[in-house]
């Protein structure tokens, strides 16, 4: 079966929601994907921040196979050891009190919205706040928080009582947040918006207003969490006073898994039957997630920080050589963005010709989300090929 045949079948069978790459993958190993024709592609995107332990990770594969041999699914009517063990690890690493499992980031956002609504029931606190550049998911509630026109405009009307404030604007926080604010949803390091970090004075003001008005802060760590930035969650590096953590992507190491964690303030917000998920916390995904947590505890989280510093330094060196082509390099750990002075798709395409996979977001930001197991040699290889492309622009 060649790629042309696959393309024809895909177009006949699927809603046209994905613009596919014109390559056919045979298998993956480490940080690389291999095509059926035998080409090796360095993956600097990691399944969109999902494949944190790369491809073919032996411990993960063994954990998955072991659980498959026991049972794949028994429903959340039963106690499940792997699920409970993963919740305990998340509590330990995050310092939060209770966990709820679902299947994806957008579902985790929906769970957080419901938690806020339940917590605020019977009060005047009805307004949800998010920020320009944000991306919180594609379901109707999560999409209501997502302040990016291209994702929203075809699906109106969305939830009412949602405000989108200017990211990093202290003035808008002061003028728009008040006694009716139920919750603020924030990515301290925006992903889809272009790897944009929150500024210190902005976070300080948000924490101050939380004390004054008593709203909930939900930290969206779907892309930036699970150790990617060198700490379990990025928001702790920003000193954000979060009450809810929204997690997904890397938490299952490649299998569908999402979660929210809540602090003492919200730990008892749900009672039996008020929220649920048929597949949430699936035991096979939980077994995979436990391997991710073990690897983070065994030094991988610190390695993300040091490798991120190496990658950031090399990219800044390239920027110094080509200041007319690279505007800024920013991010934390292994979540970095290179803002170009021109549209980025040409760079993505040229890198693919050189067997390197990256992604462009926000039109001109090359987004890097490599697996945590990336080596110094692979970082150097990427930077060599990236510079080769930049120099030819």
Helices and strands in order, then pairings?
Elements: H1 3-13, E1 25-29, E2 32-35, E3 40-43, H2 46-49, H3 58-70, H4 81-94, E4 98-102, H5 105-119, E5 127-131, H6 140-145, H7 149-152, E6 162-165, H8 170-176, E7 181-186, E8 189-190, E9 196-197, H9 200-213, E10 216-220, E11 244-247, E12 258-262, H10 283-321, E13 326-332, E14 335-340, H11 345-353, E15 356-357, E16 359-361, E17 365-368, H12 376-391
Parallel strand pairs: 3-15, 5-6, 5-7, 7-10, 10-11
Antiparallel strand pairs: 1-2, 2-3, 4-12, 8-9, 11-12, 13-14, 14-17, 16-17
Helix pairs in contact: 3-10, 4-10, 10-12
| Average predicted confidence as pLDDT | 97
Q: Spans of 5+ residues with little confidence (pLDDT < 50)?
A: none
Query: In terms of structural class, how would the helical and strand content be classed?
Result: alpha/beta
Strand order of the largest sheet: 4-12-11-10-7-5-6
Separation of the first and last Cα atoms: 36 Å
* Global shape: globular
How many strands in all?
Answer: 17
Number of helices: 12
Helix fraction, binned, reads 25-40%
Question: How would a crystallographer describe the biggest sheet?
Answer: 7 strands, mixed
Strand % is: 15-25%
Order of helices and strands: HEEEHHHEHEHHEHEEEHEEEHEEHEEEH
Measured on Cα atoms, how large is the radius of gyration? 21 Å
Question: How does this structure look, described?
Answer:
The chain is of the alpha/beta class and 393 residues long. Helix content is 39%, strand content 19%. It has twelve helices and 17 strands. The chain has helices spanning 3-13, 46-49, 58-70, 81-94, 105-119, 140-145, 149-152, 170-176, 200-213, 283-321, 345-353, 376-391; strands at 25-29, 32-35, 40-43, 98-102, 127-131, 162-165, 181-186, 189-190, 196-197, 216-220, 244-247, 258-262, 326-332, 335-340, 356-357, 359-361, 365-368. The protein has a seven-stranded mixed sheet with strand order 4-12-11-10-7-5-6, sandwiched between helices. The model has no long low-confidence stretch (mean pLDDT 97).
């Amino acid at each position: 079966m060649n790629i042309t045949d696959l393309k024809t079948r895909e177009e006949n069978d699927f809603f046209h929601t994905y613009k596919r790459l014109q390559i056919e993958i045979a298998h993956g190993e480490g940080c690389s994907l291999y095509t059926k024709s035998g080409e090796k592609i360095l993956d600097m995107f990691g399944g969109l921040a999902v494949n944190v332990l790369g491809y073919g990770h032996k411990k993960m594969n063994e954990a998955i196979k072991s659980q498959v041999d026991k049972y794949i699914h028994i429903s959340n009517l039963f106690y499940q050891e792997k699920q409970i063990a993963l919740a305990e690890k998340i509590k330990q690493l995050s310092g939060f009190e209770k966990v709820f499992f679902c299947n994806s980031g957008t579902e985790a956002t929906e769970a957080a919205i419901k938690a806020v609504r339940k917590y605020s029931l019977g009060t005047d606190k009805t307004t949800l706040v998010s920020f320009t550049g944000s991306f919180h998911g594609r379901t109707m509630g999560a999409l209501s928080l997502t302040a990016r026109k291209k994702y929203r405009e075809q699906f109106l009307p969305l939830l009412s009582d949602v405000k989108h404030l200017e990211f990093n604007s202290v003035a808008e926080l002061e003028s728009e947040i008040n006694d009716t604010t139920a919750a603020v949803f924030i990515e301290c390091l925006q992903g889809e918006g272009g790897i944009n970090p929150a500024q210190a004075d902005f976070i300080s003001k948000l924490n101050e207003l939380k004390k004054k008005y008593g709203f909930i802060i939900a930290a969206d760590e779907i892309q930036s969490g699970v150790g990617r930035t060198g700490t379990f969650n990025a928001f702790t590096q920003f000193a954000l006073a979060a009450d809810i953590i929204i997690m997904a992507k890397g938490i299952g190491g490649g299998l569908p898994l999402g979660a929210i964690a809540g602090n003492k303030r919200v730990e008892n917000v749900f009672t039996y039957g008020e929220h649920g998920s048929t597949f949430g916390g699936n035991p096979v995904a939980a077994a995979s997630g436990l391997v991710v947590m073990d690897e983070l505890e065994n030094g991988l989280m610190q390695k993300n920080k040091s490798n991120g510093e190496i990658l950031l330094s090399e990219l800044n060196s390239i920027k110094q050589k080509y200041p007319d082509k690279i505007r800024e390099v920013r991010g934390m750990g292994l979540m970095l963005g290179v803002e170009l002075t021109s549209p980025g798709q040409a760079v993505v395409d040229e890198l693919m010709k050189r067997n390197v996979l990256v992604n462009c977001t926000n039109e001109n930001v090359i987004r890097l989300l490599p697996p945590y197991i990336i080596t110094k040699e692979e970082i150097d290889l990427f930077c060599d090929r990236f510079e080769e492309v930049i120099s030819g622009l």
